[in-house]
Amino acid sequence: MIKMPYGFSLAGWSDIRRVVSRADVVLEVIDARDPLRTRSRRLERIVEEMGRELLLVLNKSDLVPRTIVEEWVHLFRDRGYRAVYVAATRHWGTKHLRRAIKEAAPALPVIAAVVGYPKTGKSSIINALKGRHSASTSPIPGSPGYTHHVQLYRVEKNILMIDTPGVIPVEGGELERIIRGQSPEQLDDPVPPAIKLIERILEHVPTAFIQAYKIRAREPIKILEELAKHRGWFYKKTKEPLIEEAARTIIRDYHRGKIPFYIKPTRTIILDMV
């Protein structure tokens, strides 16, 4: 187990295997704004190898037009995956998720595990499922290391849930590894990943920074400069805009959903799903 700066623990793959082995259904939480980059093919292979049932949960769906997230769900289902969409922090779709877990279960009662990349909202999904009326049952026996303190919660009569979310290593490319694997405060130089993130956002939502900050600039470095000026962030000696702080803010605001962003399914993207 590796401690990460966001306050979560990044599990190794052997840890993930132990969690998967103790579940009947594995909920892979992916970001509805960018479903393919937040999927883990390695996790899905492990789930398949162990004969467990996989359920894709597109979280943060409140940040995406409903027609777009529904199109993603239909695409996954057309390719043989079970998939639902939710907005866990708003408790949207929780009933549908509970129903999907029971439908995926080989038998009832079912034990479900929640797994996925950092910052996809796994803990929010656990909290949404647990609600106010869930009750802790007992620790899972024989669970060393990562799963030593794992508790089972009875979400309802026929659903038990492993309480500890599996936070897995990020596979979605260099930018994803940086912005999901490290806190903005821990980045030695947040400007390069922020520039790449700005470029990605502008590619899909050209008006994103107008909507988020009322900044009309199109060049990433100009956006960082304008944001720093608007917030009053300047170097004391040179009085130049403090773009490092602006870069950290953009990464944080992206995770918090303050910057409009989502990816529409296209033919190229669909082919990548195969």
Short description:
This protein has helices spanning 13-21, 41-49, 66-78, 94-104, 122-130, 174-181, 191-204, 208-213, 220-231, 243-256, 267-272, and strands at 2-3, 9-10, 25-31, 53-59, 82-85, 110-116, 135-139, 151-156, 159-162, 166-167. It is an alpha/beta fold. Strands 3, 4, 5, 6, 7, 8, 9 and 10 form an eight-stranded mixed β-sheet that branches. A two-stranded antiparallel ribbon has the order 1-2.
Write the layout of secondary structure elements.
Elements: E1 2-3, E2 9-10, H1 13-21, E3 25-31, H2 41-49, E4 53-59, H3 66-78, E5 82-85, H4 94-104, E6 110-116, H5 122-130, E7 135-139, E8 151-156, E9 159-162, E10 166-167, H6 174-181, H7 191-204, H8 208-213, H9 220-231, H10 243-256, H11 267-272
